[in-house]
């Protein structure tokens, strides 16, 4: 058995919709990706691109209703975590309702076993992620008590150890979150996420609420812990700087679709999708002086009303007639580098044709 | 002559635990038509400085001169005409607009307050002109803030600030709540308006790449004090204060080729309540000596460069050693 090549997480064709009174929000459309053990994958996109929805689906934390997983598969260590049975159509669909409910219940029980133990999640805002009326130490011990069959005293000792791992003295076990500063709260959140040494951590904008000097501390801590424990991290962010800092691979999400993915070299130096390029061009440059920034014109399309063609076409600088004819498919331009742009596909096809003619 | 001259400005808040030194002894000039960038961590007093400057908060002591006129002691009646000259753009476009007012009402509000329009027709024309100026489509005139995205809401905030034809605008983190692609649109708009109307900005932010892009001069604040002030190029090439150096090195750069040395600061910002009379950065500074822990350094110009100010005992000694 080749354990080396096996992926820790495999997401295939994930499609998630939110059904609201105003219409159906197509939050995630046909997204596939893998995370290998010990790898850090950066997920980049604008507000509302569907980054957090992807994370919540992996954790089994999607609010249902209004969220509905339309299709797809999420495999963690080879085990399927999305229901196989179709959803009942309305409240009176008794034929499907019974078995569907039973499966949901089974899945939820399984999710409870793995959450915190195998996958854990760090939320964006450390100020709201912690319980204000419990000691920070007890909040770490809670995870350990649930997942491991050890005594309360033992769990407390382990929680104290975790505090030291993230650089907080053990003496502060019996303090409340409000007695900590923002950076320290985020460390406590990291300690909770790491308490049972999970295989995968989903970090949803872990440093967005922090100052740059504190952000540098937290990123360094994450990288050290990842080296020490071999934890894979899915890092959701909108900051390419953070990606360059600690990620191995990166994927760019736009309007619920994966538009480009690859290793850092592919994304930073050889990027091909106009959206990825536009994002880099709209950043103020620290090294050179620029008179004017080049923003991406317009706004992200309304996810309730996505076009039937490339969803970036309206904002794209190089958009052509053909872009408005169909949805682009994700193609591999070189090993490990995927792009979803019709123009890139066409150009590649033309090159291949030219080669054949020769 | 500088448009704004601040001398020894102090703003203290009384708290149950003691005096909170939010802004402590700040002396600054802002030239007409220029942009002063103010950077620092959260809680270092940047926003308080901005608010005190336009008298949204009354200062504890010190002097603020606007166009050569002292404004700190003015009564409300005297100050009212001055206020039209100094406006502010707020950080959070989601919280700073009244959700029950439409776009036209929001933009018209300051004009009505100061009775600048003779009749309804003139008011509508002024609102329309302002909307064109900030790039808001006229069809949005009757929509409400919740129907608009962050970038458009921020444009409303800018239109409101511009409505009284000010000379000076305090921009308090105007782009930090926006996505990068929208952030670039707003930054371009602010710079275009400045070129067109010869506006003077004080641009408060924690994002170093943004501040470098928009500013002429930058001052770095730490715990209520200005620790370094210089031209933007000078500051980025040759930061002298250890805190400014750490701040610059901590910026994550969106490129995989710049492998620069990172200075990771230990600890966090200390309490601004009743600070000890010593260098406030000493507790986190890798170069601190006993002198730093005992006496407070002065903000003084660097030898050989009178426009570069730094507040550190050891700055020149360290620069020479490098």
Task: Please give the share of residues in helix of chain B.
Answer: 25-40%
Termini separation of chain A (Å)? 44 Å
Kindly identify the CATH topology of the largest domain in chain A: Rossmann fold
The tally of domains of chain A stands at 2
Q: Could you state the oligomeric state of the chains shown?
A: heterodimer
CATH fold-level assignment of the largest domain in chain B: Rossmann fold
| Helical percentage of chain A | 25-40%
Q: Average pLDDT of chain A, to the nearest integer?
A: 86
CATH C-level class of the largest domain in chain A: Alpha Beta
Query: H/E element string of chain A?
Result: EEEHEEHEHHHHEHEHEEHHEEH
Beta-strand portion of chain A reads 15-25%
Largest interface: A-B, 44 and 38 residues
Strand content of chain B: 15-25%
Mean pLDDT of chain B: 88
CATH architecture of the largest domain in chain B: 3-Layer(aba) Sandwich
CATH homology superfamily name of the largest domain in chain A: P-loop containing nucleotide triphosphate hydrolases
> Could you say which overall geometry of chain B the principal axes of the C-alpha atoms support?
globular
Low-confidence stretches of chain A: none
The total beta strand count of chain B reads: 12
Short description:
By secondary structure, chain A is of the alpha/beta class. Chain A is 35% helix and 21% strand.
SSE inventory with pairings:
The complex is a heterodimer of chains A (358) and B (322).
Chain A lengths: L8 E11 L4 E12 L4 E5 L6 H9 L7 E10 L2 E2 L13 H21 L4 E4 L3 H4 L6 H12 L4 H14 L16 H13 L5 E5 L7 H18 L2 E6 L2 H7 L2 E6 L2 E7 H5 L5 H8 L49 E4 L2 E3 L2 H16 L1
Chain B lengths: L1 E14 L2 E14 L3 E5 L6 H8 L7 E6 L2 E2 L5 H8 L2 E4 L13 H11 L6 H15 L15 H13 L5 E5 L7 H18 L2 E6 L2 H7 L2 E6 L2 E7 H6 L4 H8 L40 H5 L5 E3 L2 E6 L4 H7 L1
Parallel strand pairs in B: 3-8, 3-9, 6-7, 7-8
Antiparallel strand pairs in B: 1-2, 1-4, 4-5, 9-10, 10-12, 11-12
Helix pairs in contact in B: 3-4, 3-5, 4-5, 5-6
């Amino acid at each position: 058995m080749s354990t080396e090549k096996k992926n820790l997480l495999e997401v295939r064709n994930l499609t998630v919709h939110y059904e609201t009174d105003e219409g159906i929000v197509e939050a995630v459309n046909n997204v596939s990706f893998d995370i290998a053990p010990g790898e850090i994958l950066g997920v980049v996109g604008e507000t509302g691109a569907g980054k957090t929805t992807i994370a919540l689906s992996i954790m089994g934390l999607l609010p249902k209703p209004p969220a509905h997983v339309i299709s797809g598969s999420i495999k963690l260590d080879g085990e399927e975590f999305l229901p196989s049975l179709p959803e009942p159509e309305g409240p009176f669909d008794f034929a499907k309702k019974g078995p569907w409910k039973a499966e949901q219940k089974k899945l939820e029980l399984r999710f409870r076993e793995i959450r915190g133990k195998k996958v854990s999640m760090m939320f964006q805002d450390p100020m709201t992620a912690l319980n204000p009326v419990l000691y920070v130490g007890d909040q770490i011990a809670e995870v350990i008590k649930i997942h491991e069959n050890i005594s309360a005293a033992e769990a407390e000792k382990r929680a104290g150890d975790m505090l030291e791992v993230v650089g907080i003295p053990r003496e502060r076990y019996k303090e409340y979150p409000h007695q900590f500063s923002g950076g320290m709260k985020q460390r406590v959140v990291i300690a909770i996420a790491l308490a049972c040494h999970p295989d995968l951590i989903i970090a949803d904008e872990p440093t967005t609420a922090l100052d740059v000097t504190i952000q540098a501390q937290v990123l360094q801590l994450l990288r050290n812990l990842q080296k020490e424990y071999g934890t894979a991290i899915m890092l959701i962010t909108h900051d390419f700087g953070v990606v360059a800092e600690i990620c191995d691979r990166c994927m760019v999400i736009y309007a619920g679709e994966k538009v480009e993915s690859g290793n850092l070299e592919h994304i930073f130096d050889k990027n091909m999708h106009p959206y990825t390029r536009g994002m880099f061009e709209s950043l103020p440059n620290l090294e050179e002086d620029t008179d004017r920034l080049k923003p991406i014109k317009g706004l992200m399309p309304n996810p309730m009303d996505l076009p039937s063609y490339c969803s970036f076409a309206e904002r794209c600088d190089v958009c052509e007639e053909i872009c408005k004819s169909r949805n682009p498919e994700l193609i591999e331009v070189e090993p490990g580098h995927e792009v979803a742009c019709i123009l890139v596909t066409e150009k590649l096809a033309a090159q291949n044709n030219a080669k054949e003619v020769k | 002559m500088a448009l704004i001259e601040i001398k020894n400005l102090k703003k203290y808040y009384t708290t149950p635990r003691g005096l909170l030194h939010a802004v402590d002894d700040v002396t600054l000039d802002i030239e007409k038509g220029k942009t002063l960038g103010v950077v620092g961590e959260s809680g270092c007093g940047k926003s308080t400085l901005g608010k005190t400057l336009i008298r949204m908060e009354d200062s504890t002591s010190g002097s603020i001169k606007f166009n050569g006129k002292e404004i700190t002691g003015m009564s409300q009646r005297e100050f009212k005409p001055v206020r039209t000259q100094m406006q502010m753009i707020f950080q959070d476009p989601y919280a700073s607009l009244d959700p029950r007012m439409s776009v036209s009402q929001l933009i018209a509000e300051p004009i009505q307050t100061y009775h600048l329009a003779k009749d309804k027709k003139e008011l509508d024309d002024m609102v329309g002109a302002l909307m064109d100026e900030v790039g808001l489509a006229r069809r949005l005139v009757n929509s409400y803030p919740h129907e608009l995205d962050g970038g458009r809401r921020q444009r409303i905030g800018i239109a409101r600030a511009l409505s009284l034809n000010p000379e000076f605008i305090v921009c308090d983190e105007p782009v930090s709540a926006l996505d990068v692609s929208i952030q670039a649109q707003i930054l371009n708009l602010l710079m275009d308006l400045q070129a067109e109307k010869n506006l003077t900005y004080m641009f408060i932010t924690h994002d170093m790449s943004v501040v470098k892009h928009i500013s002429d001069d930058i001052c770095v604040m730490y715990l209520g004090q200005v620790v370094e002030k210089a031209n933007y190029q000078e500051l980025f090439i040759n930061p002298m204060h250890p805190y400014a150096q750490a701040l610059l090195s901590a910026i994550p750069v969106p490129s995989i080729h710049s492998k620069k040395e990172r200075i990771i600061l230990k600890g966090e910002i200390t309490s601004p309540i009743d600070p000890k009379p010593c260098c406030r950065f000493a507790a986190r500074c890798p170069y601190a000596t006993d002198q730093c822990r005992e006496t407070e350094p002065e903000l003084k110009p660097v030898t050989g460069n009178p426009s570069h100010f730094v507040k550190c005992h050891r700055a020149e000694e360290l620069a020479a050693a490098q």
